[in-house]
Structure prediction request, 190 residues.
Amino acid sequence: MHKLLLILALFYLTGLEAQLATFELLTTPWQCNKGTAQVRTNLQLTKDSVKFKWSTGQANQVIGGLETGDYSVKITYTVKKDTLYQHRDTTLWFSIDKKLCYVVVPKYFSPNGDNYNDLLIINNIDAHPEFEFTVYNKWGQRVHHQQQTFEPWNGQWLGVDLPDGTYYYVFLYNKSSTTVYEKGDITILR
Prediction:
């Protein structure tokens, strides 16, 4: 999460009193889900006192579904002192970046037919349509392989149940690039 803090001093027309207004812009990058942005303030938020106008056209205090790119939010606020009104506005600029959405490969599964952890399911794999996933036994022999379309693995190789034990995987986030990968171990417990 990224933060940008903007502190503005609003001086009333009399020039003798001041109210401190703070705006904090919080953003989250696109990582497994699209980005979000939110403005926090110390001002009392009423319909007429603080208004938000995002470059996306939205007018809420919090927005989501942001693609990567540059955005802005114009904040307009009104301060009332007795019968006098003072209008102020400011614009905050920010960017939403895309970060790698890491897959989560379970450390173990138990394909024993009890319908509990019978399949190896990789979380966040749908964010990587060009993946390649390979599992090896302790002798380095390939015992499972998938690419582009993920099907939960049942712990079999060529239709035969693999024995209990530790297996080693390599997950390539993009099969055309071997520079971004993850490796680890999986234990089969029947």
